[in-house]
Each structure stands twice: as C-alpha cells, then as structure tokens.
C-alpha cells in the first residue's frame, strides 16, 4: 500500500473557539490554531508531497503554508468550506434556538440556508476538483488542507462513507483523512485522530 492522498482540516480560529458557523468568512488562525498547524507539520514531516492544495480561505491557506515550509501551495476555490449563507458567523446555539439548525440537520445534503449552499452542492465542487486535478493518479502523495465540511465530502469521494453519512461525520482539527492504494489501484481510506 502506498499513500496517495492526505486531507487535513485547518487549525482553530476564534469562530471555532466560540462555536460559530464560519463557512466562507475569512478568519485567520488563532494562537491555538497556529499550534494545530505546527503539530500537523511535525506529524507530516516524513511525507514528501508531490502537490499541496488548499482552500484560499485564510485559515486553510495559513495551515497549508506552515506544513509546506516554503514549498508551493496551490489554492483552489472548490476547496472552500460549505457556504452557510445567513448562518455564517452565527453562534450554533443561536442557530439551534432559531430553528435553522434543525432545518439543516434534517437533511444536510439538500438543505441550503438563505444565501448558502447544500452539501450536495459542496460535493459537486469537490468532485469537480478531483476530476480536474487527477490527483488520484499522481506519482506521490498529495496533501489537501481545507475545512470540516469539505473534508467530509472528500471522504465521500474516496468511498469511506456515503455522502449522506459523511455530511454528519465530525472531523477535528487534528484529524487526518488518509487514502492508500494497493498494487491493483484499489483505494482504502481511513481517518486518523
């Protein structure tokens, strides 16, 4: 088995620390998030990535740049977090109190908050990214640094979970999604915490 892809979530931001929806808001890493990124860099130091991709949102870009240590990082809009629309920046407790969270949680694949997108739309973005980049056929491992929602849909693309389950699967700041290929090219994906 050889590792062909590792996907990681960005480090913590103040929105994460306050338990708020963040979506397309462009927040930087906080002090704890910088420590997450440094820990990720140490954890991945044994890998020589042929390509490093990241969401252009500051929190993912910063994390990727810390891991890359001067190597190029390719930013791709399709790796952005799901757009929460009117819920961006909203504390999750407020979304629960307003009923928006229950609407979203009932069917994350089809529900799109006003001005936002559904997980089905996010899945299409991630599928387009995979198709256009051809990263599953790259010579060495590729690193993707993005967001919780995006990584959930990457897990679905890799066949770890159906998208309908992946949309509800937590993915922490220290978790890694790793895809290995055997001699026949069969992919086996797993999450390491």
* Overall geometric form: globular
Question: SSE string, helix = H, strand = E?
Answer: EHHEHEHHHEHHEE
Number of helices: 8
Widest sheet: strand ordering: 3-2-4-1-5-6
Q: What share of the residues lie within helices? A: 25-40%
How does CATH name the architecture?
A: 3-Layer(aba) Sandwich
| Name of the top-level CATH class | Alpha Beta
Tally of separate domains: 1
Low-confidence stretches: none
Outline the biggest β-sheet.
Answer: 6 strands, mixed
Class derived from helix and strand content? alpha/beta
Give the assembly state of these chains: single chain
Please give the radius of gyration in angstroms.
Answer: 16 Å
Sheet-strand content, in percent, reads 15-25%
Calculate the mean pLDDT score and round it: 96
SSE inventory with pairings:
Layout: E1 2-9, H1 14-17, H2 31-43, E2 51-54, H3 58-68, E3 74-75, H4 92-98, H5 100-106, H6 119-133, E4 142-146, H7 148-157, H8 163-166, E5 176-181, E6 187-192
Parallel strand pairs: 1-4, 2-3, 2-4
Antiparallel strand pairs: 1-5, 5-6
Helix pairs in contact: 2-3, 6-7
Briefly summarize what is shown.
By secondary structure, this protein is α/β, with parallel strands linked by helices. It is built from 8 helices and 6 strands; from the N terminus they run βααβαβαααβααββ.
What attributes characterize this protein structure?
Rossmann fold; six-stranded mixed beta sheet; 6 strands
Textual characterization of the structure:
- With 193 residues, this protein is an alpha/beta fold.
- The chain has a single domain, classed as Phosphoglycerate mutase-like (Rossmann fold, 3-Layer(aba) Sandwich).
- It has 8 helices and 6 strands.
- Strand 5 and strand 6 form a beta hairpin.
- Helix 6 packs across helix 7.
């Amino acid at each position: 088995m050889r590792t062909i892809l590792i996907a990681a979530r960005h480090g913590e931001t103040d929105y994460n620390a306050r338990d708020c929806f963040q979506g397309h808001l462009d927040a930087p890493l906080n002090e704890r998030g910088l420590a997450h990124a440094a820990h990720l860099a140490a954890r991945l130091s044994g890998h020589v990535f042929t390509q490093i991709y990241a969401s252009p949102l500051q929190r993912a870009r910063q994390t990727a740049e810390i891991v890359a240590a001067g190597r190029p990082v390719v930013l791709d809009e399709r790796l952005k977090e799901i757009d929460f629309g009117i819920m961006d920046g909203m504390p999750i407790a407020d979304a629960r109190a307003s009923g928006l969270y229950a609407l979203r949680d009932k069917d994350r694949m089809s529900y799109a908050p006003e001005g936002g997108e559904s997980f089905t739309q996010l899945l299409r973005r991630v599928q387009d990214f995979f198709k256009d980049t051809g990263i599953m056929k790259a010579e060495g491992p590729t690193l993707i640094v993005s967001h919780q929602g995006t990584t959930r849909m990457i897990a679905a693309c890799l066949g770890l979970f159906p998208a309908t389950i992946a949309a509800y699967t937590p993915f922490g700041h220290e978790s890694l999604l790793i895809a290995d290929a055997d001699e026949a090219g069969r992919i086996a994906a797993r999450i390491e915490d």
